[in-house]
From TrEMBL:
Ubl conjugation among keywords: no
UniProt keyword list: Dioxygenase, Oxidoreductase
Presence of keyword Zinc: no
Listed InterPro entries: Phytyl_CoA_dOase-like
Record GO terms (molecular function): 2-oxoglutarate-dependent dioxygenase activity; iron ion binding
Superkingdom of the organism of origin: Bacteria
UniProt-listed Pfam families: PhyH
Protein name as it appears in the record: Phytanoyl-CoA dioxygenase family protein
């Protein structure tokens, strides 16, 4: 299993990410990888269809991506994208949420529903700062062509990650104007989008002739609970074949004997020497004292 690449986020990427709340990574997956992962998600979709677990429109939204589909594990620390994660959050991270999505063309117009939101759920009600802390970031890998609008594109308000709220309707079914400045993010198959969980975003309805296919992985600090089915992942026969960094990202307990007690690593990051990603970054001289999450 490949370890994460050693090229950190560039100065220009960081400036854009901090300003806009997202960046597009062109060609994050090769054409061969796009074909490989498309075949995988198509198999999962066919199984869900046979089991009658799709939405009324035929859409699939499966949580816990690696649990449901171990073949996607290489994406959790893909060398073209994962450096963006540790460049922003540092080494004390894991995946807390992931999903596989397929949205076929909608043939009958859906009733209006206001779906603009920030990721994080209760975090957005229970944290009191303004703006709220970032806490997590997300990678979206695009397997279908959303290079033009109207194909179920990811839609965002650039810069809105620094806003705790946007104006919205009294109920989600009340028609409401789009937030000012909203844009549909266009991407080719193989492109990835890296975004701050706080950015106000939505998925547009797909009234095109293209089936929307994407895979999402959300990363957070290890002292925040995991939403995915990590126990099932860790008990799977594939888990032992994953690299140490991948096992960290998939929630492996990193406790190791220390002195006469079983201390070792825990989610607060007090023992970085037992955390695989810290070791990888240290070995490659990527711990940056100028940036707190990457301080040695």
């Amino acid at each position: 299993m490949a370890e994460p690449a050693t090229t950190p986020m560039s100065k220009e990427q960081r400036e854009q990410f901090e300003r806009d709340g997202y960046i597009v990574i062109p060609g994050a997956l090769s054409a061969a990888e796009v074909q490989h992962y498309t075949e995988i998600i198509d198999r999962v979709y066919a199984a869900e269809q046979e089991a009658a677990r799709l939405s009324p429109e035929g859409a699939m939204h499966i949580l816990s991506a690696v649990h449901r589909c171990p073949e996607v594990a290489p994406l959790v620390n893909h060398p073209t994208t994962f450096p963006l994660v540790w460049s922003i959050l540092g080494w004390n991270v894991h995946i807390y949420h992931s999903h596989l999505d397929v949205h076929p063309p909608i043939r009958v117009p859906k009733p209006y529903r206001f779906e603009w939101h920030q990721d994080g759920g209760r975090q957005n009600r229970e944290l009191e700062t303004d703006p709220r802390p970032r806490l997590s970031v997300k990678l979206a890998y695009w397997l279908s062509d959303v290079s033009v609008e109207g194909r179920g594109n990811f839609k965002v308000v650039p810069g809105s990650h620094l806003q705790n709220w946007i104006e919205g309707p009294p109920r989600r079914d009340v028609e409401w104007p789009e937030p000012p400045g909203a844009v549909e993010v266009c991407a080719n198959p193989g492109d990835a989008v890296f975004f701050d969980r706080r950015i106000w975003h939505t998925r547009t309805n797909n009234y095109s002739d293209v089936t929307r296919k994407a895979m999402f992985f959300a990363y957070t600090l290890r002292w925040i609970a995991i939403r995915d089915e990590v126990v099932a992942v860790q008990q799977s026969p594939e888990f032992a074949s994953y690299s140490p960094v991948q096992r960290q990202l998939l929630g492996e307990s990193l406790h190791q004997p220390r002195f006469e007690h079983t201390y070792g690593d825990h989610q607060w990051g007090h023992y970085p020497e037992t955390t695989p990603l810290h070791g990888f970054l240290k070995d490659n001289d990527l711990l940056d004292p100028a940036y707190p999450p990457l301080k040695p």
